[in-house]
């Protein structure tokens, strides 16, 4: 009896249905623009929840083919919940955001990881692998995820929003559009494209707003694919439940938006849709440091990691340098991206020695709590990047043995592939 | 009495004097070449020690100017101890190397971190900062380092060899020289140079060998600056005391060489001579996995990190994307190196708000146990890289406060600079 | 659309209402007895949820007095949900239980920590402090808890069931009752009592069972206060979400029961109701190792801790030895309990130097993720026990400074106390 | 050349020879007494080294029998190096001691762990096992230890001084002697004894001092076996290299003494000489907090653990309660020592299932980085204590498997035993 009194649930500011397409829902938008009105306002210190659809807005199913990945409509992503305004926030302030919790819906205890087609989304190795759609479904069992498509692993998730940020000012938005256009212009016909200009088709603001405002937003609104100075789609796995983040404020109210929740992700999120994508619920509280942009020298968000991020202290670590020795052997000049790719390809090769297919390995490295460090970036001409695979996520002991078999090779099945039988070459 | 029996020190295979120029010492070489004879041979499982000079071979002093950094002769680096052959190792095998200990000489309990001149060594921000020589001396107090040139910090070292590797085969060496020459040819007149071709001047093999062999080694021997497929100068801080490493074997005996010991280093080692450089002693044991290159898919070393690496769980983390917003604002295409630079510049700006000079901040981020992760590398056009600064290394609480002062600004002095008063602009 | 298919929530086997007294609910019992029938049966590998009332069954309120603690009816605790039978489990097997999640009800986002009266519950320092009821209410904000009654701290919870176990066989139950009776008989009139014999008053089995069975259970059923060979009320904080536990099986079906959920707890749970007590939901899956009791030498549960337990690596650690130097100075003989008490009293004294009252300190050490190690237990006559307080849970930097003030003393208010003004002496 | 200048080794204040009996060496003492003069004085902030013999003073050899353990003369232990006075320290101050390093002598790269005879030293299970002497020799390979007497394990050491403390005042010394005498008097004829009164036989002060002073010290000096309010033989493994300790000061100068260095130890050090005992070198610096005893509420030392303590995050954890179910089944009243013993016996039983003998298991749990937590200490009548065994120290995967064999049983040899063939019963 005594317990009922003062038992007040944390309020939910934005509710969505994870089973309904995002563009039929309120409080959801998929472009960055200062003119998108706040759908709710909070006071500093208030605790609140926001619900989010998955980043595609219910386009991907819990099944055993990758056809939905192949056919995904990328003009409609990412679907963000918000904006939420914070009382008293003004340009030049720092918005302190506590990410108090990130969880899936009870009614949807699963997520997915995908390899996108070369011509529809791509991914880090889209060109190298001539990627064809593939997918793994992950089941959530409390803190753990497992996949029928990638057997033999189980890991605790570093759950986080892949995408979170404050609204840009008009000036900042213009800067983004200008600089990205210059890049696009410099790479005509690139497949996959190097960047994505504003595009009215697929744009969405889940609010009743004047049509002229809507048209302006659709015409100018920045696409959500890249992270930028306001945060955005940084896909930093450690911006996780329990972390504290400091964002620059560019417009009055700060206007925080969030989406693209991930149950787990490896550093790099290499297969593009590489995290375990989920719909879910995020819990926040916000506060303000007046004049924080100047006082902290804040050009881009900073954050404090969470004390509850999974700890897997035993790891096997792969190195990579900026020579494409998995490809044509070309020497690059201090290019950490090339180095990252070699480390990843070395890890994929290792996983294949255990019996995983290349696609399974690619998906696993994208989704599991893999860590990738920039080892050295000054030893011309080779940057060195490492990729660390936690040993504790495997059922088997995957360390090399001095006696045969050196590694525990097994038939480990296959991930979800296209129903028409079209496959990439391995 | 009872204790004397069976008290047998671990044997030292290579002895050096850290106070004597490297090119006057035996068992030291500074080029990679298959024809450099092994100076010692060990059995699998044997524990042994190797002494190393600092990477410059006694060129840098414990003083308060940076003149020695300015004038360093880089044709003579890095000075490696070895090679040590392992009985039974053959091309295609995997050499398992346990790095059992890494320690400074008792008689030289200090090290240094340097910013090199734009025209003599450079560093990650050589161009941006128009670098002039600067230096910090670090005193070693057991597991900790402190510096009179960067007050207010103390940290435990992740001690490791910056440079360790097996000898290349002639074929691999030829590949290196060919691909690096192509890069050099593509960047004529670059300052600092993009890569370093073989160069007889400054080359050294601390052994009596036939003159024709010496000439061949000097003419063809690969320079030691970059890491490559055999390991080499990877400057991976976690290849530290207590780690286990798996190297590919390219020639009979494997011929392991090591040098460039670091008391500590941050991920990236950004100021080039960014680690805390030291002379010292490394303890090894080796074993062999026959046919390991094929069985492990080993194109470059892999390793297991050490259980005694320092643990600083509380951190402040800076983000960076592949837009040069600290410079001309240019948008790069998925370039993790540019992203790393922005994260580093954000961290430097933060440290300056605490009262550190830009040079102090640059040196501190290079030397302290900073972690840099590749956050996301698929969100076109922006790669996202993070840089994490451990809070526990600072005397002050450096987290932002909501009330003024937001950060604890203090006069924190200056690092060692040129005695002629020439300074870089800040 | 695609997301609805195959979205199947994890099933809940036992549902309770946290606002209703436990003895009005089904699937709840508060004694251990082999004859309590299973209320549900699961297959090995199945994932399922069980809801639990708080340990008192809704006796304690979210308010600012401790009157409800003073008046609590302890004959009715602990209320356990279950038993759940596992198909195929037989005596002598090992039941493997994965604790996949532990979470509060959304509708009740708070918990409490209490000091019980000397004459009604007691606690570690009941005699020393002549305890009077006190209480702290904790609000749950995602992974964190804070309390208006103990300001200046915030910590991530190591959420776990305080009480979980398999059903005893009749033989084991008889052993328990016999040995505990002997202890009670040896300490006539002890306050608080040294142990609790079976007691029909307050006993409850939330099922329709034959009256003779009920009477037998009430007459013989073991009380739930102590942990025993089957698990039970071990109050081990690291038996937490993400852990895997191995229980001996004593009867067919194993008959697992669970309750007394804790949002957080310090090692020792010293104030008796020292954890942050909550109602909530636990997620399990179970499997069986046939003959595991013999094969593992399993006399009591063993477990593997969770990778998501909070990590606070910086700590201040207090020592204690088995001399009652906070009391009459008496020397005890290798008594780890006395040593633990001194360590705890040392920590309480330190917290008082920060401005916390003795009651606040006692409650905080009980509830926060404090670690207590048995340092040494062979140095006659003094056992040495340590108690480690994580620094990261405090808003202030609580380490000693060399300059005044050595510690940051503040007025830190008061916990909830008796409304009649009766207080313990401090 | 440049490196020689300002290369000043850290000074060594006390030098010993680890191969010579302690009572033939200077700067060594084996009783606690305020009148033992300081052998050196340091300034606050100064870094210095102190050499230590092993705790027995060279009585134990690197061989394959336990005869030296059987015959050890315990009247001569522990041999402490010191005292070292700190300028400015006065009674009531807090002495801050940084333990900067702890390392073995290069010339003696090994240590030992022993089970002592029931009638000569004992240990936690002296009575239960009717202990006979046994021993394991450990070889030090950099950060790791291995033993030919306990194969299949390798672990990084948490190196620390088992014994460190400030000198007692005469008043404190008198208190110790009084309370311990009372305990001895209450347990006449106990085997092993419950405590050790002052004893002139075997006492030693390695200095030239007036004979009357020497006699007083020998007559009154407290034995070194137990830890007390000044620190002393606390055998806390985390008082390790890199930790910072705060000691109460009882006499002018503080007079710090240290000895009983351990390469590694498990929580509890259960076999009495359970740590890996070694001779070696410890590096310190000290500072003072004036009036710190009062300002910190300091009744016994407090400390901050080291960031370089080994991290083994994966563990298997054994529970124990205060019922002697491994013995006569007796119920104890909230006795954490009994609970610790059950947890230890459960772990020993598990290790025996892997093929280790009981003595090997006992020695391993004493020496390896095992953690023991006080789980709960308020659930009358059962205290609950856990003992956590790190998985990463074993060559084999020792987790239970669902299929046979459940555990990897092997012949694992035997530890060093008595040459006369006398054995304890198992």
Automatic annotation (TrEMBL), chains A, B, C, D:
Organism superkingdom: Eukaryota
One Pfam family from the record: FmdA_AmdA
InterPro entries named among the record's database cross-references: FmdA_AmdA, FormamaseFmdA
Gene3D superfamilies given in the database record: Acetamidase/Formamidase-like domains
GO MF entry, a single one: hydrolase activity, acting on carbon-nitrogen (but not peptide) bonds, in linear amides
PANTHER family named among the record's database cross-references: FORMAMIDASE C869.04-RELATED (PTHR31891)
Name of the protein in its database record: Acetamidase/Formamidase
Organism: Lentinus tigrinus ALCF2SS1-6
């Amino acid at each position: 009896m005594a317990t009922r009194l003062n038992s007040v649930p944390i309020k939910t500011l934005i509710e969505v249905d994870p089973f309904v397409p995002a563009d039929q829902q309120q409080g959801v938008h998929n472009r960055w623009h200062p003119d998108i009105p706040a759908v709710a306002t909070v006071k500093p210190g208030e605790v609140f929840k926001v619900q989010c659809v998955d980043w595609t807005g219910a386009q991907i199913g819990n099944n055993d083919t990758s056809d939905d990945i192949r056919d995904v409509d990328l003009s409609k992503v990412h679907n963000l919940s918000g904006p939420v305004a914070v009382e008293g926030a003004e340009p030049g302030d720092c918005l302190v955001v506590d990410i108090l919790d990130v969880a899936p819906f009870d009614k949807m205890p699963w997520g997915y990881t995908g390899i996108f087609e070369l011509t529809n989304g791509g991914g880090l190795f889209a060109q190298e692998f001539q990627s064809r759609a593939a997918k793994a479904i992950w089941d959530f069992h409390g803190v753990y995820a497992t996949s029928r498509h990638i057997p033999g692993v189980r890991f605790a998730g570093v759950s986080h929003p892949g995408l979170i940020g404050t609204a840009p000012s008009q000036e900042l938005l213009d800067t983004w559009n200008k600089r990205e256009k210059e890049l696009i212009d410099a790479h005509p016909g690139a497949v996959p494209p190097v960047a994505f200009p504003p595009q009215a088709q697929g744009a969405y603001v889940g609010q009743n707003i004047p049509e002229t405002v809507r048209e302006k937003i659709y015409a100018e609104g920045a696409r959500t694919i890249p992270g930028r100075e306001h945060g955005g789609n940084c896909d930093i796995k450690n911006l996780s439940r329990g972390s504290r983040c400091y964002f620059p404020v560019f417009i009055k109210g700060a206007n925080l938006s969030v989406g693209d929740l991930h149950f787990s992700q490896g550093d790099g999120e290499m297969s593009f849709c590489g995290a375990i994508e989920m719909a879910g619920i995020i819990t926040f509280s916000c506060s303000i440091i007046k004049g924080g942009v100047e006082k902290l020298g804040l050009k881009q968000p900073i954050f404090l990691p969470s004390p509850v991020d999974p700890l897997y202290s035993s790891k096997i670590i792969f190195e990579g340098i900026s020579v494409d020795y998995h490809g044509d052997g070309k020497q690059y000049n201090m290019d950490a991206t090339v180095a990252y790719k070699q480390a990843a390809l070395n890890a994929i090769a290792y996983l294949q020695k255990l019996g995983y297919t290349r696609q399974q390995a690619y998906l696993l490295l994208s989704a599991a709590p893999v860590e990738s460090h920039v080892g050295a970036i000054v030893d011309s001409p080779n940057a060195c990047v490492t990729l660390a695979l936690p040993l504790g996520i495997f059922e088997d002991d995957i360390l090399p043995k001095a006696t045969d078999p050196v590694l525990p090779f097994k038939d480990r099945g296959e991930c979800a592939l296209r129903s028409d039988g079209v496959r990439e070459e391995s």
